[in-house]
Amino acid sequence: MTPDSLVTLRQHLENRLRALPAEARRLLHGRGRCWPGLEQVTIDWLEGLLLVQLFREPPAEWLDELRSMLLTLGGLPGWAAGGGQGILLQHRYLADSHTEYLLGEPVEQWTITENGLRYRLDLGVRQNSGLFLDMRHGRRWVQAQAQGKRVLNLFAYTCGFSVAAIAGDAKHVVNLDMARAALSRGRENHRLNGHAVDRVSFLGHELFKSWGKVKKLGPYDLVIIDPPSFQKGSFVLGKDYPRVLRRLPELLGRQGLVLSCVNDPEVGPDFLIEAMAAEAPGLVFRQRLENPVEFPDIDPDSGLKAMVFARENA
User: How far is CA 106 from CA 49, 101, 134, in A?
Assistant: First the structure.
C-alpha cells in the first residue's frame, strides 16, 4: 500500500467507470497479486454500488488518501452515466468487518444480477455479502448441467448454486448448510427469480451429523461441494474434505457428476484430484472450470479451483 499504488488504483477505476458492466462484476482483484501495492484490496461493482474491501489495515495516511480519491469518483461523468449511487469501504481486517458509507445513503440489502438471475446481498452487516463473484462460471456450469437432475448442494450458504440449478430446470435441489439464516436468504433468492420452492429442500443441519437424511433424499445426479477453507468448530479443509469425498459413492447415481471446489490460495488443484482418487476412486477428473477473467492471479493454482469429476463409466 504505497502512494504509487493509489495513483494506479485511481487510473484503473477512472478507466472502468467509462464502461461499467451491466451486471455485478469485480473491477479490481488485488488479491491475485497482479497489482503491486494493492494485494490487500478488492473492488466490486454491484450495479449502482462500489464496494471497496481492505483485507489488511493500511497506513493511516494511505487510508485518508484512499477515502478522498474514492469520493472524487462520484463527480466523474461515468459515475452518473453508469447509475452510481453509493461507495462503501469495508475493513475486512477488523473483527466486525466495519463498513463506511463514503457516498450515498446507508443500505443493508441490495439486489444484483448475474447471468440474468437475481440475488439479494447483505451489505455492511456481515463479513461476506452473500454471493462470491468468482464462482460465476461455476453457477453457469451448474445451470447448463441441471436439466432433469436431482442436485445436492453441500455447504449451500445462500443457495446460489441452487438458484442456478432450478433456472436450468433441475428436478429437485437439496441445500444443506448449518447456517439457517443463510438458507433463509436462499429461499428469498429463489423467490426473487420466481422459482417454485416445492422443488427445493433446505436442511439447516451440520453435515457430519446428517448423512442419513442426506442419503435418504438421494441418489443425486449432481453433487456440489463448496466448503469454507476453515470454519471454527465445524470444518477444517485438510481433515474434513476427505470425509465428504468418501461419501460420494453412496450418494451419486450411476451417471453422477461432482463439482468439487476449494478457494484456499495455499491449496492447489492436486489436493482435490489426489483426495478424490484416495476416497472415491470410482470418480475421475474431467475438467477444471475457468475462473472469470476479472479474477487474474499471478499463480493460477492459488485462485478458485472448481473441479468436475464423473463416474468412471459416465
Answer: 11, 6, 25
How much is the pTM?
Answer: 0.94
Q: What is the largest CA-CA distance in the chain?
A: 60
CA atoms within 13 A on the CB side of 111: 9
- Identify the pLDDT of residue 233: 61
Which residues 6+ apart lie within 8 Å of 223 measured at CB?
A: 151, 152, 154, 248, 251, 252, 256, 257, 258, 259
Grid cell of 307 as nine digits: 473441479
Return d(Cα 236, Cα 229) in angstroms, integer: 6
**What does the pLDDT read at residue 313?**
73
- The span from the CA of 306 to the CA of 285, in Å, is 11
Domain-wise residue ranges, the chain: 3-107, 133-311
Please report how many Cα atoms fall inside a 13 Å half-sphere around the Cα of residue 116, on the Cβ side.
6
Give the per-residue pLDDT at 230.
56
- Can you give the pLDDT at residue 236? 87
Cα–Cα distance measured from residue 152 to residue 136, given in angstroms and rounded to the nearest whole number: 18
Sign of CA dihedral 182, 188, 193, 196: positive
Residues of the chain with pLDDT under 70: 230-234, 314
DSSP state of 4: H
Residues 6+ apart with CB under 8 A from 247: 211
152-186: b (≥16 Cβ within 10 Å) or e: bbbbbbbbbbbbbbbbbebebbbbbbbbeebbebb
CATH class of 3-107: alpha beta
Q: Which CATH class is domain 133-311?
A: alpha beta
